[in-house]
Every structure is written in C-alpha cells, then in structure tokens.
Amino acid sequence: MPDRIATTRWTGELMTGSGTVTLVSSGAGRFTFSLPSRAGEPDGQTSPEELVAAAHSACYSMQLSALLTAAGTPPEWIDTTATVSQNQRGEAYLITEIRLVVRAAVPGVDAEAFRRAATKAKDTCPVSVALSATEITLDAELEQAPT
What we know:
Largest sheet: 3 strands, antiparallel
C-alpha cells in the first residue's frame, strides 16, 4: 500500500503562532490550527485531535464494513462518530480517551453479531491499533434498514 503524506508549517511561538496542515497525498486540502483553537473554541480551525478523530472514524467504518461483508452481511450504511478527549496529566497533555459511536443498517445480521463485529473492528482497525495506548470505548447499535 502506498504511504500517505501530510505536512505542517508552524509559524511563531506556541501562544500566538499558528499552523497549516496540508494533505499532500490526496491534495484534499489545507487546514489551519492554533493553540487557541485547539484549547478552546475551534473558530473555523481544526486541531490535531480533530484530525485524529477524522482518521479514526474513517478507518473504523471501513474495518467494520470489511468484517460485515466477509461474514456475508454487507452494510447498507455505517455512521461513526469519534470523539477525542485530551486532558492534562502532570505536565503533559495527552489524548486520554476516544469514544466511538456507531450506528448502522445491516440486513440479515442480529444485534449480537453486529456488536461482535463492531468490537472486532474497534480492536483491529489500523488507527485503533496505532492508538492502543489510549482508552477507546465503543457504543454500537444496529438500526433497522429502511424498507
């Protein structure tokens, strides 16, 4: 698989400076961030934690789809929200928790089989594995497919 590349340019000191993250591989965009937008209200900017949340929700959804499809029950849709929490421990600021909430419509699967697949996806998606030092919780519910 090809490598993925993002670059960051930070200008100035931490308290008053700002940065721009560029998604190089895809060319999908440039996103600004700063300490005030990271520690307070986003004010139209992103943060490293939001980018982690985006990566995790995307990776998790793909992994769950792969597992459900391999079991013969491909999903109609999967909606995943990843919430990344950062807290101070001693002098360090750490990502201390990631909460995944997933809702999906999957014809032919019961709630227990869905929860098993959802848990396996949480434990095996590459982003979850990379973030394994962080507590990752899961709230998974199967929803009825529209008829």
